[in-house]
Amino acid sequence: MQYVLHLLESRDYVQVRELSQAFAVSEVTVRSDLTALAQQGLVARIRGGVRALQVGQSEVGFDLRLRLEVERKRAIGRAAAAMVDEGEAVALDASTTAYYMALELRSKRELVVVTNGLLIATALADAPGITVLVTGGMLRMSAMSLVGDLGADVLRTTRINKGFLGARGLSLSRGLMDLNPDEVRIKQEMADSCEQVYGILDGTKWHRSALLAFVQVEDLAGIVTDSSAPAADVAEWREAGVEIVIVDPGPPEAPPFRPRDLRRAIRNDVLGS
Prior knowledge:
By secondary structure, the protein is α/β, with parallel strands linked by helices. It has 2 domains: 2-65 and 256-271, Arc Repressor Mutant, subunit A; 70-247, Rossmann fold, CATH 3.40.50.1360. It has helices at 2-10, 16-23, 27-39, 62-65, 70-82, 96-105, 118-124, 149-156, 181-193, 231-239, 262-271, and strands at residues 13-15, 43-46, 49-52, 89-92, 111-115, 130-134, 138-140, 145-147, 160-165, 169-171, 175-178, 194-200, 212-215, 222-226, 243-247. The longest helix is centred in the first third of the chain and has 13 residues, at 27-39. The chain starts with a helix and ends with a helix. 39% of the residues are buried.
């Protein structure tokens, strides 16, 4: 299952034929297993394969992204949370890495968190030392986020110490990038309201690009990433004056997923074992 979700995180769909070849099993078997995956609500069946549950093209839903690179995102979240001092105001976007960071912030005191992420706000709602300010706007179900003019208006009248923003990709020429225009706009407004802006992104994002930029290199205080980030790229960003914090997620909690484990994983999920 993890293998298919990884493919869908960067692609619109996965074909039965390619899975059959990769796992050396029949297409009939692959169709059966993908149907079981769809019945769990993790993917949508299409003719000849599956696609991610999504709204709009090329954007994978929050629930799927939350299951990818979990240990890396948790490690990044811990490191980013350690950069937050009690008594500060911080902004978190609606990225999955920001969600894991929010979990690490729960023990902070006298903290104000501004976010457009509904699940992030929920994760902090009962934390006794944290005041949560949710931006208004239109609900985007695929990202569980609020976007639009109402959120932008709130941010324009707010001064925030530090902002932590996820990204789909990055480059020295364009900065941090993402796909959806509404999400990009709210990220820009968050960045403009912050005294310091940090990117929070795992190593898989370093070789990716996206449609729209939202923070330029010169406006970044730093990037928090994991040890899988390419060393040459990290060195170039540091030479450009951006602080790069690298964390080691440590060994995975489970053995690395192998393609031949796909059928077993799907069937175990279906049977509840």
